[in-house]
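Lecture 7 notes: from sequence to structure.

We start with a single chain of 152 residues. Read the sequence below before looking at the structure.
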Amino acid sequence: MKTSIARIFTMAAVTALVLGVAPTAKASDKGCSNASLHGTFADRDTGFLTAPPAMAGPFNGVSTQTYDGNGAVTATGMVSLNGNIVSITSKGTYTVNQDCTGTYTVEISPIGLTAHGFFVLADNGNELHILVSDPGTSISCLARKLYPGKNI
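Now the structure, written as C-alpha cells:
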C-alpha cells in the first residue's frame, strides 16, 4: 500500500512539474524583435491635434509604411489636417520589444515634424495597433500587412 501511495504522489509531482514548465516554454518561443516587423503595411490614421493652436483640428490619413526588419521605417501617403490635404513622406527608426510592443520615431516631410508612437504587433506580425504619443495629439492608427507571409 505504501508503494502505491508513494508512486501516486511521485506521478502527481512529475505531472505538476511538466504542466508548469510547458506553458513557460511556449511563451518564451513567442518573443518579438525588430525582425518580427518587416514588410509593407497599409495604414489608416484618425484623431485630433490639440496643439499647437495653428494645427489644432481633426486629423485623418492613409499611407503605406515599409519596415525593414532591422529598425528602419519609411512611409508615403496623404493626410487631412483640419481639412487641408497634404502629401507626406517619412522615415525613421523603430524598436520592437520581446512582448511585441514597440516604439517609433519618424521625421515627416514636408511638414517638418518629428512624430513618436507606441505600437502593438498583432496577428503574427500582420497587423499594427498604433497610438501617436506626442503631446497635443489624440491619434490612433491601424496598419495591416499588404502581402501577409511576404517581406515586401
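Strands lie at 38-49, 57-68, 72-81, 84-96, 101-109, 113-122, 127-132, 137-145. Keep this in mind for problem set 3.
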